[in-house]
Amino acid sequence: MEAFDTYQTPLSSRYASKEMAHLFSPANRFHTWRKLWLNLAIAEKELGLPISDEAIEQMKANLHLDAKQFEIAAAEEKKRRHDVMAHVHTFGQVAPAAAGIIHLGATSCYVTDNADLIFLREALTLLLQKLAVVIDRFQSFAQQYRDLPTLGFTHFQPAQLTTVGKRATLWIQELLWDLRNIRRARDDLGFRGVKGTTGTQASFLALFDGDHDKVEELDRRVTELCGFSYAYPVTSQTYSRKIDIDVLAPLASFGATAHKLATDLRLLANLKEVEEPFESTQIGSSAMAYKRNPMRSERICSLARHLMTIQQNALGTASVQWFERTLDDSANRRVTLPEAFLTADIVLTTLQNVSEGLVVYPKVIARRIAQELPFMATENIIMAMVKAGGDRQEAHEKIRVLSHEAAHQVKQLGLENDLIERVRADPYFDPIKGQLDALLDPKSFIGRAPEQVDKFLADWVQPALADEELQAALRKAGKAELNV
Description:
- By secondary structure, the protein is mainly α.
- It has 20 helices and 4 strands.
- The model has no long low-confidence stretch (mean pLDDT 93).
């Protein structure tokens, strides 16, 4: 019951994946701090500092914290008002041979900032893999419905026909740009490395008796041990908070993509043309039992709006970092960075769930086309009359009059569009009445939409998903299940 007595963020307790929630957990954070202290000690020992093998082995054996160590660290932090020193003390208790050299020459940002960069890189990788799966699922949807005609909408007013699959390619193209942007942000990430209290490496220069080459090698070696290809060449006490802007920008951009996509699905659900998954036992409304609300797409929009705004925190924080640093970034970033990734993770999981269960209603789509197509076909009818020897202006006037009569039936009387019946009943159009069915075939109004789908999937989507990292993610991906 204790878990129900205090507030828990729904991002982790209700929605997020176990992988993303664990990545930003206290257990993983402090485990990562210990690995950073271990790597620093290894590199310092390799470069000649008097660190014993026993110290290294004890550190390696105690990289994970148990419940008792969390209690000790909490008590130490309450006493010292310093989270890093509380964990230095706690680590030293289980690795006593290393107690005197843990954090040697380092400042707090050695563990806090470097750990954050590790988390950012791993979190971006998780998002890339999940986004690849979402793109793959919508690719299958687009291929399946590549040539199913549907009414297009501009200004949410009836427009020329497109296809269900072609519309899906518009979503996929934006998701591909998000894939590019997130990959770019991840691959561009560097490491803070070992830079000291204000970025000058003065403490390490003192440790190595003024040997600049050893200090540079220490920075390079720790960066290598932590799995990064390079460290930022200069830093202050922290890595530049502009990096957080660069990382959160593609997440905010993805939020816009997800919101647009989910909004389209919500509108299509209202039209009863396409619906998101709806379980047999799902309840749409506590009062209106018949309802099938698009709650998944609504959730995507709700969280996507939150995701789009989080980057503002990073912009504000980066802009107010005085000189070599201020601490007013800390509490903000503890909230901002995990929330951004947890939110993006949830949106992707929900998008995948939706994409795997979309239901299309071709007969509803066909009925709506039939209501609007007669008006769209008027130009084709006029051209057919001219080809049959008629006068273009006379044909235009005839169609104009009949169109207004049909519009009156629809708008004023609430009846069906009977324009084609009026054309069939008018002797003027006798020369082309045998062509009317062909002139009204919806597939004659979709242009190159099916071919565009095929070419887009072959030339853009499949190459984007072809690299081994994403292929591995696709092979291991199952169906996305939602907890609620």
